[in-house]
UniProtKB/TrEMBL annotation:
High-level lineage: Bacteria, Pseudomonadati, Pseudomonadota, Alphaproteobacteria, Acetobacterales
Domain TRAM: 1-50
Family membership: Belongs to the class I-like SAM-binding methyltransferase superfamily. RNA M5U methyltransferase family.
Entry EC number(s): 2.1.1.190
Name recorded for this polypeptide: 23S rRNA (Uracil(1939)-C(5))-methyltransferase RlmD
Length: 424
């Protein structure tokens, strides 16, 4: 009998001695037949008693593609499971009295960015995602997550890659659906020939992608190999010229929800002259809406992202510094002087920056996380430093996966923000 789901979406059952076993494709409440794969991992053979939350997967590639792990589970049940994962992570960190979480979930076919693997397979080229726990690339001929405009471009992309001399065996491609059109960053395992550049320029015109950038594995600098027009995207009413491979939130709705959750979590009495420090600012997803009303000091370690943010900072209340926070965190004495600190760290969490946050103890912290495990670790440091958890919003922008996004606000000291308006 399956009693719960693990962090990766596998069903968990208990052996007679109490040891857990993990069954791919099983759901809580189900009685299943499974066979061992390796160690504690089991593969589902059949479902004897199905759970009420079990549904028919909507994508024909579900069993092979590693992009989705939970298409056999209803979306409302997935959202509730992800919410409980976040609540559990915060309780594990010490916050026993968690506020009622607000919940959001994006629609299907809304993902606007994709990082795909490329492999030569005889005379063909595969462009897609890896099979689960495997190096095998599954050709992405169907997808219930991707925006239709991304999927429409893939046949032409695949055909062009097939003829590239610079693609010997393997590569990667990043696709960003921007306001200006599709932006492509291609990585190959060999140098591009002059013919390759002509082919990529033709692809740019065919799929209306104003820019295709490229770099060879083993190098760091990318090169624009085809550009037919300006590349731009609007965030919070500001048009930004994004660098190749720029990080964006996975969908347009989730970007808006995250921005709204952060703005809603600001203390009510913050003024235009009060200081907000933003860590891991990226290209301005949060910096720009915050700076529309407040003074913001944004720190970002990736130089191209910091440069594009600096380019739009003139005449605004936005100050930008390029700084690797993993090596040179903003010190506690600086953070202490801020009215609010906002951070959206990488998947692994805030690392060395957390020590400075808990040393400086700014009164208000708004933490955006895409990893409940990292959130639990960092939130424990905040709990131990005397912070309270004020608000919590769970945003499922990674449909049918085990990943989730969450926005939490914390307060240090006697001041406590009202919990009103949590369920918007």
């Amino acid at each position: 009998m399956i009693h719960s789901l693990g962090a990766q979406g596998d069903g968990i059952a208990a052996l007679p001695d109490g040891q857990p076993l993990y069954v791919t494709g099983a759901l809580p409440g189900e009685k299943v037949e499974a066979q061992p794969v390796s160690g504690q991992k089991y593969q589902l053979v059949s479902v004897i008693t199905p759970a009420s939350d079990r549904v028919e997967p909507s994508c024909p590639l579900f069993q092979s593609c590693g992009g989705c792990t939970l298409q056999h589970m209803s979306l409302p049940a997935i959202l509730e499971w992800k919410t409980q994962r976040v609540v559990y992570a915060l309780k594990k960190a010490g916050f026993s009295d968690t506020p009622v979480p607000a919940q959001r979930q994006v629609p299907a076919h809304s993902r606007r960015r994709a990082d795909l693997a490329i492999r030569r397979n005889g005379k063909n080229v595969l462009v897609g995602l890896h099979a689960r726990n495997s190096d095998q690339v599954i050709d992405l001929t169907s997808c219930t997550i991707m925006h239709p405009n991304l999927m429409a471009a893939l046949p032409s992309v695949r055909q062009t890659l097939q003829s590239l001399e610079g693609l010997r065996q393997a590569g990667e491609i990043q696709l960003n659906l921007l306001e200006s059109g599709l932006d492509i960053l291609l990585t190959t395992d060999g140098p591009l020939s002059s013919g390759d550049r002509t082919r990529l320029a033709s692809l740019s015109a065919t799929i209306s992608a104003p820019r295709i950038s490229w770099y060879q594995r083993g190098t760091e600098a990318y090169e624009t190999v085809a550009q037919s027009g300006p590349v731009y995207h609007t965030m919070a009413g500001v048009t930004v010229a994004l660098p190749p491979g720029a990080f964006l939130q996975a969908t347009a709705p989730s970007e808006t929800w995250i921005q709204d959750a952060v703005l809603s979590a600001l203390p009510k009495k913050i003024g235009k002259r009060d200081k907000i420090i933003e860590l891991y600012a990226g290209c301005g997803t949060l910096s720009l809406p915050l700076a529309a009303h407040h003074q913001v000091f944004a720190y970002e370690g990736y130089a191209p992202a910091a440069a594009c943010l600096k380019a739009v900072a003139g005449g605004t209340r936005l100050n930008v510094e390029c700084r690797d926070l993993n090596r040179q965190p903003v010190m506690g004495t600086v953070l202490k002087a801020a009215n609010v600190v906002v951070l959206d760290p990488p998947h692994s969490g805030a690392g060395l920056q957390m020590r400075q946050l808990t040393t400086g103890k700014p009164q208000h912290i708004i933490y955006v996380s895409c990893n409940p495990a990292a959130l639990a670790k960092d939130a424990k440091a905040l709990h131990d430093a005397g912070y309270r958890l004020n608000s919590l919003e769970v945003i499922d922008q990674f449909l049918w996966s085990a990943e989730t996004e969450v926005v939490c606000s914390f307060t240090h000291g006697s001041s406590r923000r009202s919990r009103s308006g949590l369920s918007r």
